[in-house]
Amino acid sequence: MLDMMKKHKSNFRDPDPDYNVLKTNGISGPALDDFRKFIKGLKVDYMIPNQPNTRKVYKMNDIRQSAIQHRFTLDDKTNISIGEYFERHKNYRLQFPKLPCIHVGSTSRDVCLPPEFCTIVRGQVVNKKLDETQTAAMVRAAARPADERKRRIMQHVSISMNNYVTLHIKKHRHDTFNVIAITVS
User: Which of 4, 27, 104, 150 is the most buried (most CB within 10 A)?
Assistant: First the structure.
């Protein structure tokens, strides 16, 4: 998640920050708006470092105030910030307390997580509008002559067929072990 924030901060109108800049300044302005649009609806894997029993997957809804500013009330009616909560109750001092927290789960509940504990789940389908650079790259890739497209398709089919034949042979050679070895080169 921190890499994603760093990428959005550098790609959208700000000079390239390092993690120290994110740690001291956070993310704000147009970069924050762009980041908000990007994460909405994506799934995130949450886990406090070195505490694997805290692992859980959530859907991201929005972003909220930083862990220093965002406050909530505990069951004992104590009003506490997210940063204080993680330090006192989870024995973890946040490294990036000035970054905005991620609002996850049900929209009716105010569950906010520090982004340093979140990793965007791989392999998600993202139906978002491409930026200008991505659109240009897609058009360049698609605007190839028909004979070149045909040649590339035939190459991939040939490679796939060779891999299938190799896989098929390997399966029969090791049939007594009931193992299929797949190698990708």
Answer: 27
Strands 71-73 and 43-46: unpaired
Quote the pTM value.
Answer: 0.60
**Separation CA 25–CA 147 (nearest Å):** 52
pLDDT in tens, 51-65: 888 899 999 998 888
CA nearest to 38, candidates 5, 72, 65, 68 = 5
Instruction: Give the N- to C-terminal CA distance of the chain in Å, as an integer.
Output: 30
How far apart (Å, rounded) are the C-alpha atoms in residues 92 and 73?
Answer: 19
Q: Which of 82, 109, 85, 77 is nearest to 98 (CA)?
A: 82
Q: State the pairing for strand pair 79-81/71-73.
A: antiparallel
